[in-house]
TrEMBL record:
Keywords: Cell membrane, G-protein coupled receptor, Membrane, Olfaction, Receptor, Sensory transduction, Transducer, Transmembrane, Transmembrane helix. This is Olfactory receptor. PROSITE patterns: G_PROTEIN_RECEP_F1_1 (PS00237), G_PROTEIN_RECEP_F1_2 (PS50262). SUPFAM superfamilies: Family A G protein-coupled receptor-like (SSF81321). Signal peptide: none annotated. GO terms for molecular function: G protein-coupled receptor activity; olfactory receptor activity. Residues 39-285 form the G-protein coupled receptors family 1 profile domain. Its main location: membrane. The gene is LOC100019747. Pfam families: 7tm_4. InterPro entries: GPCR_Rhodpsn (IPR000276), GPCR_Rhodpsn_7TM (IPR017452), Olfact_rcpt (IPR000725), Olfactory_Receptors (IPR050427). Belongs to the G-protein coupled receptor 1 family. It is a multi-pass membrane protein. The chain crosses the membrane at residues 24-45, 57-76, 96-118, 138-162, 191-222, 234-256, 268-287. It comes from Monodelphis domestica (Gray short-tailed opossum).
């Protein structure tokens, strides 16, 4: 316990040590973060207020947008503030909270993407039984299980982090607290713990990615017997999902499936999945989805029309 208490705060290296580049980082991340929050909140409000977006797909999309907003909020605000500070300190407790929330909402996003793939599979491959398979009760239970799964994953991560003894130094070579950079500071052999992290985070990323790719392959294969119009609509929806899966899982697999090794590019890759992806998701789902775009037009032009009258 004494060894752990030797470090009460960590010093984050940040994305760069160049003051000029840090100013650029400040403006870019600030714009990204504001756009992410506004974009995802817009999707959540539109789906909740619209009478046409009542299918399970949009029910899951609200949770994906919520996870995106929260995932971005775990790292972006601190990165924005730290880019203006010379000394980027974070307390031990804040570090553990950031680690927990980052993994919680990251895992939540993965599980919601799996639920969305399952929904598309049921809609395209089992259309006659779709309403039974994806009833409101079933959807609620699936989301509750996703919350539970995310909590279990994060508890495992935080348990590993809390078991690490820190005797100093306390300089974390990252812009936020994550297990790999923290394990490099631990004054104990972390080989087994590294393998546990790969087994936990790495396995979740790889298994989920393979599961999603297999499910979309089955979905696309089953489209061969559908009409041209049905094929186009299904392909339009599925292609949005596949794009989101690829841009989210690519960086995750790159970072969390490598035991004992870190690269300088890891920080930029982490920016992409923790800050970039939550911004891209609302753009992909709105730009490629006519139903969402039409619902947004109806919802946001109505107040304008009423005020003009």
């Amino acid at each position: 316990i004494e060894m752990k208490n030797n470090v009460t705060e960590f010093l984050l290296v940040g994305l760069t040590k160049d003051p000029a580049i840090e100013k650029i980082v400040f403006f870019i991340i600030l714009i990204f973060y504001i756009a992410t929050i506004l974009g995802n909140m817009l999707i959540i409000v539109t789906i909740n207020k619209s009478s046409t977006l009542r299918s399970p797909m949009y029910f899951f999309l609200t949770y994906l947008s919520f996870s995106d907003a929260c995932l971005s909020s775990t790292t972006a605000p601190r990165l924005i503030v730290d880019s203006l500070r010379k000394r980027k300190t974070i307390s031990y407790d804040e570090c553990m909270i950031q680690l927990f929330t980052g993994h919680f909402f990251g895992c939540m996003e993965i599980l919601v993407l799996i639920l969305m793939a399952y929904d598309r599979y049921a809609a395209i491959c089992k259309p006659l039984h779709y309403l039974t398979i994806m009833s409101k009760k079933v959807c609620r239970i699936l989301v509750e299980l996703a919350w539970l799964g995310s909590f279990v994953h994060s508890i495992a991560q935080i348990f590993i982090a809390l078991s690490l003894p820190f005797c100093g130094p306390n300089v974390v070579n990252h812009y936020f607290c994550d297990l790999q950079p923290l394990m490099k500071l631990a004054c104990t052999d972390t080989y087994v713990l590294n393998l546990l992290v790969v087994f936990n985070s790495g396995a979740i990323c790889m298994v989920s990615f393979l599961l999603l790719m297999i499910s979309y392959t089955v979905i696309l294969y089953s489209l061969r017997n559908q009409s041209r119009e049905g094929k186009y609509k299904a392909l339009s929806t599925c292609s949005s999902h596949i794009i989101v899966v690829l841009i989210f899982f690519g960086p995750c697999i790159f970072i969390y499936t490598r035991p004992l090794t870190t690269f300088p590019v890891d920080k930029l890759v982490a920016v992409f999945y923790a800050i970039g992806t939550p911004l891209l998701n609302p753009l992909i789902y709105t730009l490629r989805n006519k139903e969402v775009k039409n619902a947004m037009k109806k919802l946001w032009t109505r107040p304008v029309i009423s005020t003009v009258k």
